[in-house]
Specification:
271 residues, alpha/beta, TIM Barrel, nine-stranded parallel sheet, 9 strands, 46% helix, 13% strand
Length: 271
């Protein structure tokens, strides 16, 4: 059983959903993002998403776009993201880690080499935002061979006929994109989610995580109650960016402010 499957099984026994916070690699530098990554489990993260910065993040809104630009300006490469995970695993063997990013850097790295190195570093799952189902064979055989969960994105516009096709080969959990549009721009209503999630349940037995627009503790609590997990990204990046100085460096206390936000989100999910 993968770390992701084991974590969701444990949470199901506890009768609650998961909190999945997001950290952009090397935003605004290696030390700050590493401190956030290491602090998130104690703050209440059940799983963690790490964003791999890319120059053309088509699904990301301005908040995460800016975070990616800061990471790229700091010099991050794909290999550096894997090193982050490897360093995290020295002290934490339990928390599932999911990499979220785009296909081009993986193609440049080499899909098979990437999956081998990601698994060796301690990565548990992959979300590749711009990889269409029809082209999944570019990566899926290598992720399967190395025990990496392949996590699919489902949009509100994915109809019942296409759902089984999109979900084919998926594992770990299903990521429901709660809005049509880019990250961090608006939020889905509870009524929309209560209508959408049962439709997905009919198509998959995998846990369902809700992302794109989950910002507040109240929204995280609602998402984790209706589905199985809440993904929070832009709200955390927003807090970090508000605590950078004029040179783009993290001010004293910036990391703790983000971790306090994770604690508030976790408390709402646990309620």
């Amino acid at each position: 059983m993968s770390r992701i499957a084991a974590r969701f099984a444990d949470l199901k026994r506890q009768g609650r959903g998961a909190l999945i916070p997001f950290v952009e690699a090397w935003d605004p530098d290696h030390a700050t993002s590493m401190a956030l990554l290491r602090g998130m489990p104690e703050a209440g993260a059940d799983l963690i998403e790490i964003g791999m910065p890319f120059t053309d993040p088509m699904a990301d809104g301005p908040i995460i776009q800016a975070a990616g630009k800061r990471g790229l300006a700091a010099g991050v490469k794909v290999a550096d993201v894997l090193t982050m995970v490897r360093d995290f695993r020295v002290a934490d063997e339990a928390t599932p880690i999911v990499l979220m990013g785009y296909l081009n850097p993986i193609l440049s790295y080499g899909p098979e080499r990437f999956c081998v190195d990601a698994a060796a570093a301690g990565v548990d799952g992959l979300i590749i935002v711009d990889l269409p189902t029809e082209e999944a064979d570019v990566l899926l055989p290598y992720s399967n061979a190395n025990g990496l969960d392949f996590i699919r994105l489902i949009a509100p516009t994915t109809d019942d006929k296409r759902l089984p096709h999109v979900l084919s080969g998926s594992s770990g959990f299903v990521y429901y994109v709660a809005i049509t549009g880019i990250t961090g721009t608006r939020s889905a209503t509870a009524e929309h989610l209560e209508a959408a999630i049962p439709r997905l349940r009919k198509a998959t037995n995998l846990p369902i995580a809700i992302g794109f627009g989950v910002r507040s503790p109240e929204q995280a609590g609602t998402a984790s109650r209706i589905a199985d997990a809440a993904v929070v990204a832009s709200a955390l990046i927003d807090t970090l960016s508000a605590n950078l100085d004029a040179d783009g460096k993290a001010r004293p206390g910036a990391v703790e402010k983000v971790l306090d936000q994770v604690r508030a989100l976790a408390a709402a999910v646990r309620r």
